[in-house]
Write a structure and sequence with these properties.
single chain, alpha/beta, seven-stranded mixed beta sheet, two-stranded antiparallel sheet, 9 helices, 20% strand
Amino acid sequence: MDAPPHGLDTAADPTAVGLTPGAIEGVIALHDQRRSYASFAAFEDDLPQLLSAARWLDHCAEVTRLLGLVEPLSAEHLPPETIRITAPSYRESLQANGLISRQRALLLVLEQAYGDLPALGELEVCLAEAGTGLAQWWRLRLGEERLVCRPAEPAPLPAERFDLLLCSDLLGAGEPLEGALASALAALRPQGRLVATCPLDFQRERAPAEARDGIPGWELLRQLRETGFSRGCIHHIASWKHGVLARSLPGVLVIEAQKGA
């Protein structure tokens, strides 16, 4: 486990943050857990443990509520008074500094891929949303010179224009997923990345053919390959340290795909 950052003393007396001795091990395991999967089979091996770990989510949220969190990429410690939790579905309701849990999960994947804010500032970026907290966060920290914000819509993006496409739960909105992936691939420069969240039927390798909601299973990875992406994986990120928690699973699933050279 990483050393706790300034302002998050994980060595504090557990009773001071409302933890019983039996909960300590489970909470520590979700301090900053990051796993990546290139197949459903690999994820399926971990799934029982992940589902079991979800029972510690309320404890983890309480630790975040009492100690604050460290914002990804900016490394800013956000104190407890800036954190708002409005519902037990922490993926959507754990709010701080204008971002929610799934948006901070995107930032953690970007941190892993690019390292820091200056590196991201050199990229041509398309964000599939304009008026959200994530768009505002990006503008404040990286400016607008290399950023294009636009609603998710079927209109095509310029060919080979972007180094990074970011999409927070809007992937496939307004068009079939296959079309959205093809549009993303065409808009990326060589070695460009798509980083996205979307609703995912995570317990199925393939969504039922009769499903009407359009939510994919892990066949999404196959679709990425068939579209032409050279590499694709799905990250599971659970981190009360960074304010990334969910509900059915302890963490947020983030899609990352890269175009070939």
